[in-house]
Write a structure and sequence with these properties.
The complex is a heterotrimer of chains A (90), B (471) and C (172). The longest helix of chain A has 7 residues. Chain A is extended and about 55 Å long. Chain A has one domain. With 90 residues, chain A is an alpha+beta fold. Chain A contains two helices and five strands, in the order βββββαα. In chain B, strand 14 and strand 15 form a beta hairpin. Chain B is globular and about 80 Å long. Chain B is α+β, with helices and mostly antiparallel strands. In chain B, strands 12, 13, 14, 15, 16, 17, 18, 19 and 21 form a nine-stranded antiparallel beta sheet that branches. Chain C has 172 residues and is α+β, with helices and mostly antiparallel strands. The chains are: A alpha+beta (90), B alpha+beta (471), C alpha+beta (172). Chains A and C meet through loops of A and loops of C. The complex binds FE2/S2 (inorganic) cluster and fe (ii) ion (FE2). The site of fe (ii) ion (FE2) has 5 residues of chain B, from loops.
């Protein structure tokens, strides 16, 4: 674990293993208190509130396996056209 | 050269050498030098010895938490040995099912899932493939993930904290394989309530020597201490009688295992039970059988080998020439890298609940006398390199038999020994070494059984285990 | 609270010369003389490293080392080499300590300097035309005494996790 000092704000906790790195920090604005979980490598982040976090506490390892079905995130919707479509057809 | 069964045949010359060796070890108590450093022997050995035997992978304490993993070897195959999210110990071939990439490249870590660095296929730590990048676009979601789990070690089992794997799905159970050796292993592995732990990680280093020389040395060679380790005797790190290692029992069991159990030289008072702390002595007297306690009481050194390449050293030794002796426990793996090269992995273990002073003293005694820099062990590595080099040459290989005749006509098995196995009343003997080599040669001349080696059996077995785990 | 030594050009030169003299003694097998350069409260450690991910806090293993000596055990090693039975180094290896990238900084105590250096240790034995090489970084604490320096502390961080020499019989 690494604690990253975060100027003027709460520190960021970073944990890593061989496969990835993840950062967690505490965010509060007005009434709102959330944990910000972000993936610096993939560029995703999510703000989890207490209820969402609570729901994690009864999940099984299999549920996380399902979430990892797309191991690098959802990706962008592909509406790719074949390269041949770009080639002149005259 | 492959036969119809998928295994490799032995060349006639090799088979003759081994069959002659089997006759000689029985009749003349000699062993052909050709088995030590020969590329063809090594090739055959990979399949016939390491492809069939239970090989030590890790100690449970190294993966004590869910998600913990270490990468370990059976012959050159590497396995992720891990504790899955349900707490079960597993072994997966460290090779992605897509293109074969190493899934783990660190030696150890903790994770619930393994994500292949090549294209990102992701497996949970039970080994199931759970994620494929762009699975919808690239595979049209038609890839049946259940068919592409990480290959499991065909057989995996644990004995008193030691995790072993076996590449032969038809192999006998680990319990049966260890057989009578368990009586002696228990003395080391099972003497305390909380059990043992590996401290840190194993030291790893490479020696230009054949692995069998390490195994042969630990299985029974008390004789070499007089000469090889004389410097340490002179300095007082070992008992002052250079023949100290003679005063012991020399025991072997089926399947090539064996050990020497050495007591103090006559008239030399050394503490009982390896001088272990009182709390452990109290526990062991309660935990072990009366026979095991009797065997262990006078012990100052235990050296042994679990066939093929796991050795045990439990020694009472001083950390330097001015300190009193402390006992320590080391496990080591003689991991073959070729006919003339091995990697040694040397583990230091301690009773989890031993007092801190003992942990510290024991660590110091270990690291200064054994392991890569150990003042004792240095001399062994030197010898094994030298032997490997000369025995790799054509004339030596063709003409030399090695003399395994110690004790011939000198002593008979000890009828009064309270433990199992075949015991001789003196540790200057080579019965264990013959037993080791004979078993090794028997494996070498035994052709692979039909069906083994094609991988299918292990797949089915794995699918079953997985189905059970997920049910 | 002691004040740290101010690092002058002279300190740097002295520390550098000390390291070179040490290397010369070790390569000449003059271990007795080397012991004279060592403080009685010596700590000499070669940590055990493992391959870990970049993000891991450290790749140095806790609780176990490759070598962990004090003055007594170092003397034991030297005494051992003086017996006629230290086969590991008899015949001796031919070794060469290449010491570079020397960095001298103030030590924790007033009479100490902290010296980092890179080490390349070449080792060859017997009549085989092969060699072993060890490479690593040394973190030393040299203590100023009358007439020179004594080695009080050394940590040798080797660059290999699986070490490619058959024993660490040589002092690094
Ligand atoms: S090799 Fe592993 S995902 Fe391609
Ligand atoms: Fe030995």
């Amino acid at each position: 674990m690494t604690i990253i000092r975060n100027e003027g704000q709460d520190p960021i906790i970073q944990i890593a293993n061989e496969f990835t790195v993840i950062q967690v920090s505490y965010i509060s604005t007005g009434q709102r208190e959330r944990l910000l979980v972000s993936s610096p490598r993939l560029g995703f982040q999510t703000l989890l509130d207490p209820l969402q976090l609570e729901s994690l506490t009864w999940q099984t390892p299999e549920m996380y396996s399902k979430l990892l079905d797309t191991p690098y995130g959802p990706g962008v919707k592909l509406d790719a056209r074949p390269l041949s479509a770009l080639l002149g057809k005259d | 050269m492959s036969d119809a069964k998928g295994g490799h045949m032995l060349r006639d010359e090799l088979r003759q050498t081994l069959e002659q060796g089997l006759r000689d070890v029985e009749a003349d108590w000699t062993v052909p030098a050709a088995i030590i450093n020969d590329p063809e022997m090594h090739d055959a050995e990979r399949e016939r010895v390491f492809g069939r035997s239970w090989v030590f992978l890790a100690h449970e304490s190294e993966i004590s938490e869910r998600g913990d993993y270490v990468v370990r070897y059976i012959s050159e195959d590497q396995f992720i040995v891990c504790r899955d999210e349900d707490g079960e110990v597993r072994g997966h071939l460290n090779s992605c099912r897509h293109r074969g990439m190493q899934v783990c490249r660190a030696e150890m870590g903790n994770t619930s899932h393994f994500r292949c660095p090549y294209h990102g296929w992701t497996y949970n730590n039970k080994g199931s493939l759970v994620g494929v990048p762009a699975g919808r676009e690239a595979y049209g979601n038609k890839l049946d993930k259940s068919l592409w789990q990480l290959k499991p070690v065909p057989k995996l089992d644990t004995y008193k904290g030691l995790i072993f794997g076996c590449l032969d799905p038809e192999a006998q159970s680990l319990e049966d394989y260890l057989g009578d050796m368990k009586f002696y292993l228990d003395i080391v592995l099972d003497r305390s309530d909380a059990g043992l732990e590996v401290v840190g990680a194993p030291q790893r280093w490479v020696v230009d020597a054949n692995w069998k020389l390490g195994a042969d040395n630990f299985v029974g060679d008390a004789y070499h201490t007089m000469m090889t380790h004389r410097s340490m005797v002179e300095l007082g790190l070992a008992p002052p009688d250079p023949k100290f290692a003679l005063y012991g029992e020399h025991v072997h069991t089926e399947n090539g295992h064996g050990l020497g159990i050495i007591g103090p030289p006559p008239g030399m008072p050394l503490p009982e039970f390896l001088g272990m702390p009182e709390s452990i002595v109290e526990q062991l007297q309660r935990r072990l059988s009366p026979e095991q306690v009797e065997v262990f009481r006078p012990v100052t050194f235990i050296h042994g080998t679990v066939f093929p390449n796991l050795s045990i050293g439990n020694f009472l030794m001083s950390k330097d020439h001015v300190s009193p002796p402390t006992s320590f426990l080391t496990l080591r793996l003689w991991h073959p890298l070729g006919p003339d090269k091995m990697e040694i992995m040397s583990f230091f273990l301690i009773e989890k609940e031993a007092p801190d002073w003992y942990k510290e003293e024991s660590y110091q005694a270990y690291v200064r006398t054994f392991g890569i820099s150990g003042a004792f062990e240095q001399d062994d590595a030197e010898n094994w390199r030298s032997i490997t080099r000369v025995l790799g040459a054509q004339y030596a290989k063709k003409t030399m038999e090695l003399n395994y005749q110690m004790g011939r006509g000198v002593y008979e098995p000890d009828p009064d020994w309270p433990g199992p196995g075949k015991a001789f009343p003196m540790d200057y003997a080579e019965a264990n070494q013959r037993n080791f080599m004979e078993y090794w040669m028997q494996l070498m001349v035994t052709d692979p059984a039909p069906h083994s080696g094609n991988g299918k059996v292990s797949d089915d077995a794995a699918a079953e285990t997985l189905a059970r785990a997920e049910a | 609270m002691t004040t740290a030594t101010e690092i002058t050009d002279t300190t740097v030169r002295e520390a550098t010369e000390w390291l070179f003299t040490e290397a010369e003694l070790l390569d000449a097998g003059k271990y007795r003389e080397w012991l004279d350069l060592v403080a009685e409260d010596l700590s000499y450690v070669v940590p055990l490293r493992v391959t870990r991910e970049r993000e891991a806090e450290t790749d140095i293993v806790e609780g176990l080392t490759l070598m962990d000596d004090d003055w007594d055990s170092m003397e034991m090693r030297v005494l051992r080499l003086e017996t006629e039975y230290a086969w590991a180094e008899d015949p001796p290896s031919r070794s060469r300590h290449f010491v570079t990238n020397i960095r001298v900084a103030a030590g924790e105590a007033e009479d100490e300097v902290a010296v980092k250096s890179n080490l390349l240790l070449y080792r060859t034995r017997g009549d085989v035309a092969t060699f072993d090489i060890l490479s690593g970084e040394r973190h030393d604490v040299l203590r100023r005494v009358a007439g020179g320096y004594r080695l009080a502390k050394r940590v040798v961080v080797l660059d290999q996790t699986t070490v490619m020499t058959h024993n660490l019989a040589l002092i690094m």
